[in-house]
Amino acid sequence: MTQSATDNEHPHPDLDPHLGQILVTHDAIQRRIGEMGEQITSDYAGRAPLLIAVLKGAVMFMADIARAISLPVELDFMAVSSYGTATKTSGVVRIVKDLDIDLSGRDVIIVEDIVDSGLTLNYLRKNLAARNPASLEVCALLLKEGMQKVEPDLRYVGFRIPDEFVVGYGLDVAERYRNLDDLRVYVGPGSGH
Question: Is this structure's pTM higher than 0.90?
């Protein structure tokens, strides 16, 4: 078997020099999502929550958490931009793709991949609250510890992680690594490692 140029450009994750340790395994992610889905099912019994995912990072999480909720759910998507470079936030948030569904009177759950500074989430909360939902909560896969000035008000949190730049399970650097099953520390260019 010969190795192609593509194999050299995209080595197996265990051989990629830009990927560090696994922070959260795929099995642990799936187990925790099952627990979160059960909690959301219990909390929203008799209602049909509207899940809003923040593109692109939350797509994998959105698909899995939606399937873990044993209630009718609707899905919608927003795209916001807050990153100036691959690994550092710009401090400016803007909506790139807005919602298709009216939020008036709806039970809304924002599905986030990761909360670090909280800047994007604070902006989204204010923006969505102005659209008059019946309720507005947050379900985040990851909370990066020590990055927020105050403890964020998150109803559902999958994992608290250290201040590391992570990739995999939807999270990327320059659009790479989203398809990894596990969450890994990124140690490549611009990571600070």
Answer: no
